[in-house]
Amino acid sequence: MDEPQKGRREFALSPPLISLRLTAPAREALTDLLRIRPRGSVVHLTMVPGDPPHPHLALRPATRGEVVFEVEGLPFVVDPESQAAFAGATIDHVVEDGFAAFQVEGPHLPQAERGLGK
């Protein structure tokens, strides 16, 4: 399988900032989505403030100053304020009743809000 960013990188990779795990369905879905996104796009993970805070996933080009690291061959950015929450998390991609979504579970994430929008 071709890597989505091969020959299209607009950023330098750094060593992994945190430990993340992707399930096979998540890796496949993210690979497919990155392939059709603009050049230099990466997976951005952030925690959205609220009660409780909830995870958010976005695919967009990396901006200057963001630290991009690879997880299983895919480029990721986790904002500095969210790194502790996502440490050790697993990202999955599920399809249920015709709806697809990314889900994340981890030891430092609120368990009530696990879905991540596409």
Helix share of residues?
10-25%
SSE topology string: EEHEEEEHEEE
Gap from first CA to last CA: 22 Å
Q: Taking Cα atoms only, what radius of gyration do you get, to the nearest Å?
A: 14 Å
The total domain count is 1
**Biggest beta-sheet profile:** 5 strands, mixed
| Unreliably modeled segments | 1-8
Mean of all residue-level pLDDT scores? 85
- In percent, how much strand structure appears in the residues? 35-45%
What's the CATH class label?
A: Mainly Beta
Rough outline? globular
Textual characterization of the structure:
- The protein is mainly beta and 118 residues long.
- The chain has one domain (14-116): HesB-like domain (Hypothetical Protein Aq_1857, Chain: A, Sandwich), CATH 2.60.300.
- The protein has two helices and nine strands; from the N terminus they run E-E-H-E-E-E-E-H-E-E-E.
- The protein has a five-stranded mixed beta sheet. Strands 2-7-8-9 form a four-stranded mixed beta sheet.
- The model is unreliable at 1-8 (pLDDT under 50).
The gist of it:
With 118 residues, the chain is mainly beta. The chain has helices at residues 24-36, 83-86, and strands at 13-14, 20-22, 41-48, 54-61, 68-71, 74-78, 89-96, 99-105, 115-116. The chain starts with 12 loop residues before the first strand and ends with a strand.
Descriptive terms for the model:
mainly beta; 2 helices; 4-stranded mixed beta sheet; Hypothetical Protein Aq_1857, Chain: A; disordered N terminus; 118 residues; single chain
SSE blueprint:
Blueprint: E1 13-14, E2 20-22, H1 24-36, E3 41-48, E4 54-61, E5 68-71, E6 74-78, H2 83-86, E7 89-96, E8 99-105, E9 115-116
Parallel strand pairs: 1-5, 2-7, 3-6
Antiparallel strand pairs: 3-4, 5-6, 7-8, 8-9
